Please model this.
Amino acid sequence: MYWACARLEPHREALALHCLAINGYTAYLPRLREQRVRNGRKIEVRTPLFGPYCFVAIKLQWHAARWSVGVLNLIMNGVQPAKVPDAVIDAIRSRERNGAIELPRHPGFKVGDQVRILGGPFRNHLALFAGMKPRERVEILLQLLGGEQRVTLAKKDIEVVR
Model:
């Protein structure tokens, strides 16, 4: 048995996982737990971690997985599905808590903190921390062209100015 990666139809992940299970495949769709505001209320949303991609355990034949309802294609390595190492799947599963992966709540920054950009075209510019985004990204407010612009950067590319 080995793990392969499948690209699913957008917004039909549940159908694809169900059809893969009917065809005898074990599928794993890691989800990210996010807090969002909808209609003025905070709600918890579980979105797929890798967008429309999931992992499928292949035992012997992979063709039925490829043509399963809701699956657009398998990520191929020539004429066979590309193999995803077991260590990658284990590392993702080790970060799950209660069925979803949670981003750290306290990134070391508070909304409104003054930060310095460490890399890229805006290196050494000062900005304000606006919030945390998924996948170790941060959102900052940068003074450009007479107004504030929201910019998303990697967390490692900013530091708090004390």
Observations:
- The chain has two domains: 2-102, 114-160.
- The domain at 2-102 is CATH 3.30.70.940 (Alpha-Beta Plaits).
- The two ends are 53 Å apart (CA to CA).
- The first strand starts at residue 2 and ends at 8.
